[in-house]
Amino acid sequence: MPYLAGIFVYPIKSLDGIAVNQVKVLASGALCQDREFAILDAQGRFVNGKHNPKVHLLRSTWDVAKQTVCLQIQGTLEKREFAIDSDRIQLESWLSNYFGFPVTLAKNSLTGFPDDNIASGPTVISTATLETVAAWFPGISVTEIRQRLRTNLEINGVPPFWEDQLFAKEGEVVKFQIGGVMFEGINPCQRCIVPTRNSLTGESYPNFQKLFSEKRRETLPIWVNSSRFNHFYRLSVNTKIPASEAGKILQVGDEIKLI
User: CATH 2.40.33 occupies which residues in the chain?
Assistant: First the structure.
């Protein structure tokens, strides 16, 4: 029986995530605290790993109960803890000094700051898929692949690429249920440059995207709707959660059922 093996949220977009045992679904269909904050430059653009490699060197530890974040530059011993609301000015100053240009920390507790505003729900992948992809790249562990892909919900008890059945033709959705929460699977997630880089150092893996795409094409299950693959640098599934599910709880161990 497929079941929910892991829940990961990323309180500050582009920074380190945290594993939680349960999470509430917001009215927008986002997960509570996932990408609730985002670092913005003076033009209002996201400061993220896609465009700024220094993001990879920034370690963050989130304390949910205290609502604090502890920041540390990779390879150094100094740590700074900030209350996310009351120390906002000091936090923005520290981040501005680190990046070398002015930044602000924006907050959206209603929708967060999703990468895909249409399929704005949590991303889904299976543990077996992560294990398979890690095996494509000597020297990269399953944990490291997980950190590079930054998905929200991890499914176990299924074979590799099981989640590819959670999307259909363009314009259609696949309905499924995790515990008591209804989902709509939308499309296979298009990956960016971030998975090509070491999650701690930002160092690029040679020919990562090319090798990934070749292996993904070779291992694509025969039953997958291949019309959704204009290229094969796609992995995990983007979803939506209907407004009717607001306030419901997802919990590790929840069973997963196709509707």
Answer: 3-31+114-258
The secondary structure of residue 217, as a DSSP letter, is: H
CATH number belonging to the domain at 3-31+114-258, selected among 2.70.98, 2.40.33, 1.20.120, 3.10.150: 2.40.33
Instruction: Report the C-alpha gap between 126 and 185 in whole angstroms.
Output: 14
Residue type at position 85? D
**Which one-letter DSSP state was computed for residue 35?**
T
- What are the φ/ψ torsions at residue 94 (nearest 5 degrees)? -60, -45
Per DSSP, helices labelled H in the chain are: 88-99, 127-135, 142-149, 208-219
- Whether this model's pTM surpasses 0.90: yes
Compute the average pLDDT of residues 119-148: 97
pLDDT in tens, 52-86: 999 999 999 999 889 999 999 999 999 999 999 99
The strand pair at 124-126 and 153-156 is best described as parallel
| 217 Cβ contact list (under 8 Å, min separation 6) | 232
Q: Where are the alpha helices (DSSP H) in 165-222?
A: 208-219
What's the distance, Cα to Cα, between the start and end of the chain in Å?
Answer: 14
Nearest 5°: phi and psi at 125? -150, 165
Distances, alpha carbon 186 to alpha carbons 22, 110, 174, in Å = 23, 21, 7
Q: In the predicted model, is pLDDT for residue 118 greater than 90?
A: no
Cβ-based neighbours of 193, under 8 Å, separated by 6 or more: 49, 50, 209
Closest Cα to residue 121, out of 62, 176, 63, 61?
Answer: 176
Confidence at 22, pLDDT banded by 50, 70, 90: very high
